[in-house]
Specification:
single chain; 2 domains; 5-stranded antiparallel sheet; SOD_Cu/Zn_/chaperone; signal; zinc; copper; Superoxide dismutase [Cu-Zn]
């Protein structure tokens, strides 16, 4: 009887520990804004990033207004610096130091999110999924910049000298800094740390319980 009690307690501890280490969805948001134009229009709106678990793809929702109809280059830039407006955000986020490409290309900057398209009223409201960017880990995009460009990104397929660098997408018409938008007690998806310690402890608990149960037979 005692051995069953010990094993039950061990299983309970394991389940409780697993519940504590379960990764919750995290969300980040950037408020993009650009200068007021001569026709009194202004590009502004939100870009929301959601990652449901460690290692999963990131869902991107773009909600912007005040644009000219058509496609506009849309990228994560390396810096979250607004000291000199959008120009302070540096180049595309490209930790691998590779050529510019499209979001579905094998070779691309981490920050290459392709184009978003404004309708006839100048509004963008779309949601899509990107398989490269992440909200966590050393390559996480939180704290970096989001930039919307004046022209269509040629996805690195054009003949312009900037094609393999920026997609020849023109000037920066709106930008914002990506900030955390989740209420989390502990940052998920970290290597090591308390989560790994709790997981190791749960495994150790099961081993000890098994040994104790065998000794009581």
């Amino acid at each position: 009887m005692m051995q069953y009690l010990v094993v039950s307690l061990a299983l309970c501890a394991t389940i409780c520990s697993a519940a504590q280490t379960r990764n919750m969805p995290i969300q980040a948001i950037a408020y993009l804004i650009g200068p007021v134009q001569s026709d009194n229009t202004q590009v502004k709106g939100n870009v929301t990033f959601t990652q449901n678990d460690c290692g999963q793809n990131v869902h991107v929702r773009v909600q912007l207004e005040g644009l000219k109809e058509g496609k506009h280059g849309f990228h994560i830039h390396e810096k979250g610096d607004l000291t000199n407006g959008c120009l302070s955000m540096g180049a595309h986020y490209n930790p691998d130091k590779v050529d510019h490409g499209g979001p579905d290309h094998e070779v691309r900057h981490v920050g290459d999110l392709g184009n978003v398209e404004a309708n006839s009223t100048g509004i963008i409201d779309i949601t899509y999924t990107d398989q490269v960017i992440t909200l966590t880990g050393k390559l996480g995009i939180i704290g970096r910049g989001v930039v919307l460009h004046e022209l269509e990104d040629d996805l690195g397929l054009g003949n312009h000298t900037d094609s393999k660098k920026t997609g020849n997408a023109g000037g920066r018409i709106a930008c914002g800094v990506i900030g955390i938008n989740s209420d989390v007690d502990e940052w998920p998806c970290r290597d090591g740390g308390a989560g790994a310690l709790r997981y190791s402890f749960s495994i150790l608990t099961v081993i000890v319980a098994f040994i104790m149960a065998r000794s009581l037979d």
